[in-house]
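Give me the fold.
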Amino acid sequence: MQLTGKILPIYMYGSKILTQVSFPVEKNDPELKQLIADMRATLANIPTGVGLAAPQVGVLKRVFLGEDNKVFINPIITTFGKETKMGEEGCLSIPRIYAPVRRSKKVTVTWRDQRWAEHSEEFEGTLLNEGTPDEKETLEAIVIQHELDHLDGILFTEKTGDVYKQRMRADLQKFLKREMPYTVNYPVVFQEGNGD
């Protein structure tokens, strides 16, 4: 039976849940199927979104959606490739703010899917404007690392350099005051927290 998902609000920077470590999902979690349906509906409502982690919709469970709505449950990166690249990242929880982050171009991940089948696979990701025009541009490895950071309570703003942190400071302070420095076309929510 196909569940209908509802569009959930995205928790904004400064929300305490974004700084907390998510809990592993249990095999027979009665809320899991609905959570995945809701996350898919939410991400489909945001044309610029390429991934979504459960904490971004207010749920502290180790689940995220990657490229093409691929479901990752209890993901673990088992290997980080040695080659890294710096690329500009953004986040639905910190809209229209971008900064460079260094990420591995390849990662090997183990996870479970929504049917609880276990997988292990290597993913690659080129960064924006990298590679030849003939190559399919994919951010898959980058998205996985970014979304898994969410499950560990880490935002990309913590992984960028000090110069960029300084440049973002004024906008981030607005989020902490529950102000939106930019408008977005999706529902948002601010939760109590210190944003540190």
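Strands lie at 10-11, 52-53, 63-65, 71-80, 84-91, 94-104, 106-112, 118-124, 188-189.
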